[in-house]
Design a protein that fits this description.
By secondary structure, this protein is an alpha/beta fold. The protein has seven helices and ten strands. It binds adenosine-5'-diphosphate (ADP) and magnesium ion.
């Protein structure tokens, strides 16, 4: 069976060869199926963000590999790697990282424009509708609540129709109700669009809704259920 994304014995050591060396990942092998929803849980400092950054090719592993649709991600040229990041991966961070001097819609379309592409209008309309931000297109980030800003950031992550959406504690800055609402919309949206969602959360109620829960402890997988 071919997986949309797979890691093989992934290791990451920060400051390797120095006294400050940190083994953040100690051999992570995981398989992600297309269209499924995965939750990654584990204590602060266990390596969740490091794993997410490597899955999204924002950082490189010290050892091991990431395979996307049968191809070794880090075996690609730098140009191909950048294209992979732009076209296959949507990244949602805890901080929204919206450009303040641009409207919501401009923010959403920015990655596509930087890639010299036009949006798929039908897809975009559907995404904005599902995230309940159609009416906010012309607002500036300062005119939006935290939850609204994060939904705009989610739409931006999805604009390029990525196969995989990576979300690293995306609602860590929101109150519990807004957090739940935002995650429900995120989950429904990726489901409708057939995307694979990998979500880091420390909320066990939210993790319980995922198809698969992956628990990490000190850089190792301790449970997949
Ligand atoms: N850029 C970095 N340089 C050095 N150490 C880092 C860096 N990023 C993370 N770490 C360390 O790697 C370990 C895992 O961190 P991280 O992946 O951020 O964990 P989590 O997201 O689960 O809280 C921690 O010990 C952290 O201090
Ligand atoms: Mg983290």
């Amino acid at each position: 069976m071919e997986f949309i994304l797979e890691t093989r014995n992934l290791k990451k050591t920060y400051n390797a060869g120095t006294v400050q060396a940190v083994e953040a990942l100690r051999g992570i092998s995981l398989q992600f199926e297309k269209g499924r929803y995965y939750a990654i849980v584990g204590k602060s400092g266990c390596g969740k963000s490091t794993l997410m950054h490597i899955l999204g090719a924002l950082d490189t592993p010290t050892e091991g590999s990431v395979i996307c649709a049968g191809e070794d991600v880090f075996g690609r040229s730098r140009k191909a790697l950048a294209a992979f990041r732009r076209r296959q991966i949507g990244f949602v961070f805890q901080s929204y990282n919206l450009l303040q001097e641009h409207t919501a819609l401009e923010n959403i379309l920015m990655p596509l424009h930087l890639d010299g592409r036009d949006p798929d209008e039908d897809y975009l309309r559907r995404t904005l509708q599902m995230l309940e931000i159609e009416g906010l297109k012309n607002k500036f980030p300062s005119q939006l609540s935290g939850g609204e800003q994060q939904r705009v950031a989610i739409a931006r992550a999805m604009a390029a129709k990525p196969a995989i959406v990576l979300a690293d504690e995306p609602t860590g800055n929101l109150d519990p109700n807004t957090s739940r609402h935002t995650l429900a919309l995120l989950k429904d949206t990726v489901e409708q669009l057939g995307q694979t969602l990998i979500l880091v959360t420390h909320d066990m109620d939210i993790a319980s809704e995922a198809h698969v829960r992956i628990r990490i402890h000190q850089g190792e997988i301790v449970d997949v259920a």
